[in-house]
TrEMBL record:
Signal peptide: none annotated. One of its GO terms (molecular function) is glyceraldehyde oxidoreductase activity. SUPFAM superfamilies: 2Fe-2S ferredoxin-like (SSF54292), CO dehydrogenase ISP C-domain like (SSF47741). The gene is cutC. Gene3D superfamilies: 3.10.20.30, [2Fe-2S]-binding domain. It holds the Pfam family Fer2. InterPro entries: 2Fe-2S-bd, 2Fe-2S-bd_dom_sf, 2Fe-2S_ferredoxin-like_sf, 2Fe-2S_ferredoxin-type, Beta-grasp_dom_sf, Diverse_Oxidoreductases. It comes from the Bacteria. PANTHER family: OXIDOREDUCTASE WITH IRON-SULFUR SUBUNIT. This is (2Fe-2S)-binding protein. Its EC number is 1.2.99.8. Residues 2-78 form the 2Fe-2S ferredoxin-type domain. Keywords: 2Fe-2S, Iron, Iron-sulfur, Metal-binding, Oxidoreductase.
């Protein structure tokens, strides 16, 4: 057993875990943050994507211990109270979710994509960048539309801050 100390959604936590515990297990099983999903457990589907120190990571592919000292954000941590994150709002408005299983990972990856590409984002880039996230409903068209829409909304939101 080891104690992993990290910040999750702005809150400092210390969790005793077995050394083999994955980051996704720490989040879901120890902190009850079940918005982060497990689709494959083998780094293929992207349902488990969270942000670690501001970048998207597949939490099924990391040991909890590798997140020691890190700042982790999950899907539960991106809205401001009742106000959705611009990416969540864009997914809602563009019908970018179907069964919803891939949505948390898609949104966390998409925020990272927009933050890295800023205003330079086009459809081909979004499709390429989202290759690590699989939608089992295969509804990619509206997801891509949502990400492009959110890129504009995030710019507006940033300018207003
Ligand atoms: Fe992590 Fe599929 S559960 S990539």
């Amino acid at each position: 057993m080891s104690t992993v100390k990290l910040t999750v959604n702005g809150k400092a936590v210390a969790v005793d875990v077995e050394d083999r515990t994955l980051l996704v297990q720490l989040l879901r099983d120890h902190l009850n943050l079940t918005g982060t999903h497990v689709g494959c457990d083998t780094s293929q589907c992207g349902a488990c994507v969270v942000h670690m120190d501001g970048r998207a990571v597949k939490s099924c592919t990391m040991l909890a211990g590798q997140a020691d000292g890190a700042n982790v954000t999950t899907i539960e941590g991106i809205a401001k109270g009742e106000e959705l994150h611009p990416m969540q709002a864009a997914f809602r408005d563009n019908h970018g979710l179907q069964c919803g299983y891939c949505t948390p990972g898609m949104i966390m990856s998409a925020i990272d994509i927009v933050q890295r590409h800023g205003g330079q984002l086009d459809e081909a880039t979004v499709r390429h960048e989202l290759e690590g996230n699989i939608c089992r409903c295969t509804g990619y068209h509206n997801i891509v539309k949502a990400v492009l829409d959110a890129a504009g909304r995030m710019k507006v939101a940033q300018a207003a801050e």
